Amino acid sequence: MPRHIPSLLRDRSDEKRREAHHRRPKAQEKKVAKAVGGSRRPGSGAFDGLKGDVLRSDKSFPLLVECKRSMGKQSIRLEASHLTKISAEAMGSGSYPALSVQFDEEVMRAIAVADQRPVASADWIAVPLHVFQAMLEALGEESRL
């Protein structure tokens, strides 16, 4: 029978890794919410009627944002189902859909150094073309399509 190990002597590396995987998405969601003038959704959109990760409810340009991140890798798997999901959820909430993509800053620096190029931003927001056109129109620009 295993003996009880005092908490101060336990190996917590797995526990810390799990915690980090929960903190980092929240940090990305907070950053995106601040950038777009919105707020984080409770449970990252896991509740009925509260879909998406970030909602900007401003009537002038409402956005529903889904957040994805790379977790230290050079790529993010993006599936068409992710885009149809956030599009349907945005339509249901009367918002425009958007996708926030965040790469690890250390990975971005390493790639830039290896390629002898400037470091690209680690944070990106992608929107469908019709949303980009609506953004240009909201800024008083004329769409070229």
Describe this structure in words.
It is a single chain. With 145 residues, the chain is an alpha+beta fold. It has a domain at 43-138: Trna Endonuclease, Chain: A, domain 1, CATH 3.40.1350. The protein is built from four helices and five strands; from the N terminus they run αβββαβαβα. The protein has a five-stranded mixed sheet. Strand 3, helix 2 and strand 4 (96-102) form a beta-alpha-beta unit. The radius of gyration is 19 Å and the shape is globular.
What attributes does this structure have?
4 helices; 145 residues; alpha+beta; 5 strands; Trna Endonuclease, Chain: A, domain 1; globular
Short description:
With 145 residues, the chain is an alpha+beta fold.
CATH architecture classification name of the domain at 43-138: 3-Layer(aba) Sandwich
Q: What is the fold named in CATH at topology level of the domain at 43-138?
A: Trna Endonuclease, Chain: A, domain 1
**% residues in beta strands:** 15-25%
**Distance linking N and C termini:** 72 Å
